[in-house]
User: What shape does this take?
Amino acid sequence: MTTTSPQANGSGGASAPIQERDRVTVRFAGDSGDGMQLAGNRFADATAVFGNDFSTLPDFPAEIRAPAGSLAGVSSFQISFSKHQIFTPGDEPDTLVAMNPAALKSHLSALAKGGLLVVNEDAFTSGNLKKANYPSNPLSDGSLDDFRIIKAPITTAAIAAVEDLGLTTQNAERTKNFFALGLVYWLYDRDLEPTLDWIEQRFGRLPNIAEANRRALYAGHAYGETTEIADAHVRVPPAVLTPGEYRTITGNQALVLGLITASHLTDLELFYGSYPITPASDVLVELAALREFGVRTFQAEDEISAIGTAIGAAYGGGLGVTGTSGPGIALKSEALNLAVMTELPLLVLDVQRSGPSTGMPTKTEQTDLLQVMFGRNGESPLCVLAAKSPGDCFYMVLEAVRLAFQFVTPVVLLSDTYLANTAEPWPVPDITQLDQIDVPYRKLEHIDPEDFQPYARDPDTLARMFVPPGVKGLEHRIGGLEKSDISGDVAYSPENHQRMTDLRGEKIRRIANFIPELEVDGPESGDMLVLSWGSTYGAVFTAVNDAREAGHEIAHAHLQYLNPFPRNLGDIVSRYKKVLIPEANTGQLRMLIRANFLVDAQGYNEVTGQPLSARLLTAAIIKMANE
Amino acid sequence: MVLHTPPSPELVESIIPLADEDLSRKDYASDVDTRWCPGCGDYSILAQMQRSLSNINVAPEKMVFVSGIGCSSRFPYYMNTYGMHSIHGRAPTIASGLKLSRPDLQVFVITGDGDALSIGGNHLLHVLRRNVDVKIFLFNNRIYGLTKGQYSPTSELGKVTKSSPVGTTERPLNPLSVALASEATFVARSYDTDPQHLQVTIEQAARHHGAAFVEILQNCNIFNDRAFADYTDRDVRDERLLYLEHGEQMLFGENKNKGLAVSATGLRVVDADGPDAGLILHHDATRPAPDVHQLLARCAYPEMPVPMGVIRQVTAPTYGDYLDGQIEVQKFKNRHDITQLLRGRSTWQVE
Ligand SMILES: Cc1ncc(C[n+]2csc(CCOP(=O)(O)OP(=O)(O)O)c2C)c(N)n1
Ligand code: SF4
Ligand SMILES: [Mg+2]
Assistant: This one.
C-alpha cells in the first residue's frame, strides 16, 4: 500500500512565514468519542521528540459515554510547550481546537481575545448546535469576530482522504482526530515521524486502519500548508534541558514505578490491595500487569478490605501498600488506626479528587490533607507526605517507604487528579544510583528471645521492635487494644495510656530529624513568603517568578513533608512580614500553619476542580505584596 | 483456567509446618490470663484448639491467629503463637493479605456471629469465594456478648434481648447456608460441649487446602444461656444431632435407628428398620453440587436432627495457587528488567 503525501516532513510549506515564540499552549476539545486524548498524547510525544519542555492537562467527563455532541460529553486535552523549563500546563490556551459546537461552547471562554480558533465546520449542524444550546451558528453570526479562526471541513476532508480504502463510514469518520492533529502539526512545525511510528506500532495489524490514520494525518498537514493561514505558522525552539535520557511520565505512572522500585530497593515483594476508584484505579491496573516483578495485586471487595489485606501483608513483613482516593480514605480510616496502634510499616496512597461525597470524580483538589491528618478516632498521629510534580511521585514513594520501615509507621502519600493525569518529560532514574531501603526487622529476627519486647523502642527513632511471624521463640500478639509500653501486653492503666499516646506522637515528630530541612527560594527573610504544598508547586513557582519579574522580591518555599513538618518551618514562616498560602482547598495547610506557629498566614484558595491558575495567582501575589 | 492441580491430602499434611519436637497442649497456651466469664463456651473451644494443634504438632512460630472484635475475638491472646486482635469484622481481610504474601504461615481466623455475619459479612463472603487458604472459626452464640447482650444476625426471630425488649423483628441468617452460597470449599459445624468432635473437626479444617469455614455453636451463659441446649445436652444429643461422616449413611438416634432420605420437598426422617431404610442417604462431602449440602445446612431442630461434622469438602485451587501461578508464568514469559521498566515505551536523549 502506498501513502499519498505531498510532503512527509514537518519543515513547513511556503505559504506563510514562520514565526518564533517562547511558549505556546494548545487545547484540543471535542466529544468523548472524538479521540481528543489520543490526539493530545500524540502531540505530546511529538513535542518531546522535538525537544521542548512541556506539561499536559487532560480533562475528561465522569460519564464514560455521554450522548454524542452533548455538553456533558466534552473531553479536552491541553498541552503547553516551551523553549524554557515550564512547570504548568498553561492557564489559557493560545489555540483552541474545537471539534464540535459543544466543545466550542465549553472552552471558548478560556481563549484570550485574538487567540487562534480551529473549528471543524462540518460538525456545526443544526442538531449539534441545538445540543450545545446555540440559538444561532457562531461560525456565521459574528460572535467569534474577536478571534482568529480557521474553519476547516475536518470530517469531510478526512473522509475524502481515506475514500478508496473501503472503510465503513464510521471508521472513515473516526480518522478526523488525525486530520486535526496533522493540521496542528503544521501550525506548530511538529515532525510527523513519531506519530507515524506510533500508528504503525498500534495499528500495524490492521493495515487499512493504519493507512487511513496516516492519510488523515498527512491530509491535515497538507491542508495547513496549502490554505492561506495568516500569522498562524509558529515555531517554538527546543528547550535547553539537563542532558540525559528522558521519557514522558504521569503522576500515576510514577507511583507505579516508585512502588516497583521500592520493592527492588527493600528486596521485599510488593502487595497492593485496592478497590477501583477514579483517579487511583490506574495504579491498580498498571501494577496488575507487572506480575513478573513479583507484584501481588489484590482487587478487594471494598476499601476496608483493601487496607486490611495491605496491613496483613505488612504484618507478614512484606511491602504492604493500599491506594485510593478521598472517599476510600474515609472507609479506610478505622483500619488505618489499627496500623497506628499496632505500629506497622504501611503505605497508603491517596490520589485526591474533588469532594465532598462523590463530588467531581475526574476533577482535582487538595482537600484530603486534614482528613489524612485528623480523620480518625483518638490521638492518631501518622506520617504524611505530598508529591509536587508527576515525576516527584516516584521519589516520594521511595521516601514514604523508607520512613514507613525506619519508623515502623503508616505513611500517607498525597497525590491528586492533576498530578495523576498530567504528563511531563522526566529524566529516567539510574536504578544503580538509588539507595537501598533498610528493613530493620531483618536484624531483629536473630535476636535472643530473652531480649525481645515487641514494644521496646529504638532510642533515636522510637520505632518499636517489629518482627513478623515465623521466628521461633518470638511468638507474640498485637492488636488494636492499648498496648503496654515495652511488653506490648494489653494495658488499661491511665499512666500507660498517657505514655503511649506521647510516644506515638513523639515518634512521628522525630521523623523531622531524618528528613531534609525546608529550602527557601528567594530572600531568606523580608517582606513576603509564598508557602505551598503538593501539586500546586508548578503554578506557584510560575506565579512567584512572574511576580518577581514584575519587580517584587518574594520568597517561595514548597512542602513535601506535611507531618511532621521540616524542623525549620516555624523559623522560616516567622521571618517574613507576610505569608501567603495558595491551595486548591479552603485553607487546610493555612489552618495547620496558623495553629502550629501562630503566624497570620493568608490564603489564596480556589476550589474549582481545576489546577490553580498561575495568572490569577500572580495577580493575588502582587496585590498582597503591594498591600 | 487451572494453573495448579490442588495438592493431595498427603501433600497438604506436609504443607502444614510442623514443630521439630513433640509439643503438648500446654505449649500452645500463652501465659495471659483468660478473661471470659466463668462457664463461657469459649474456654472449651480454646482447650480443644490447643489440643488439636498439638495433635497435629503444628510449629507455633508458623501459626497466626487473626481475630476481629468480640468476646470470641480475644482468643489470639491466649495462644502461644503469633496473632493479631484486629478490628470488628475485618479479620478475613488481614488474614488474606497475610496468607497471600506469606504462604508459609498457617493462618486461622477467629470470629463471632456479629463479627463475621453483621459488620464483616461482606468480607466473609469474599474470602470464601476466593478460596484463600485460611481457616475460619465462627463462634456462634447467637448474641452480641462483648457489648452485653444485644441480638445478632443469628438470633432467632422474636428473640427478646436488651435491644429487642419485645422481641426481634428480623429473620436470622444460617451461617452454613451463607458459607455454601459463598462457594466455600470446606464447611463444617461442631459445638463447644463435645471436645472430641470439636478437636477432630478443627483438625480436618486445618488439613484442608483452601478456605475452611467452621461454625462452632458456643454457649454464652451470661446473655444467651442454653441457646443450643435443646439438642446439644448430653441426654438428648443422640436423638437430636446427626453426626456426619463422609461415605457413611446419615444415621442418628439412640441405636442409629433413624436416617435421612430425600423427600419431595427436601429431606425427611425415615426409620432405619422400616420399609424406606434403603433410601437413607450416604453422606458425600465431596459432591460438587452443593444441593444436598444446602439441605443438610437447613436441617433445624425440632423438625429435623441438627447436622454436625464436615458437610462439604471439595478440592479447588486456592487464590494463592492462581496468584503464585501467574507470577511464575509471567516471570518465565516476560523480562523483568527494572531499568527497562523505568525507561518505558520510548525515551529520547537530551544532549
Ligand atoms: C466499629 C465497631 N463497631 C462496634 C463495636 C462494638 N462491638 C464490639 S464486639 C461487638 C459484637 C460482637 O458480637 P459477636 O461477633 O457475636 O462476638 P461475641 O462477643 O458474641 O463473641 C460489637 C458490636 C466495635 N468494637 N467496633
Ligand atoms: S459474655 Fe458470653 S460470650 Fe462473652 S465471655 Fe461472657 S459468657 Fe462468654
Ligand atoms: Mg456472638
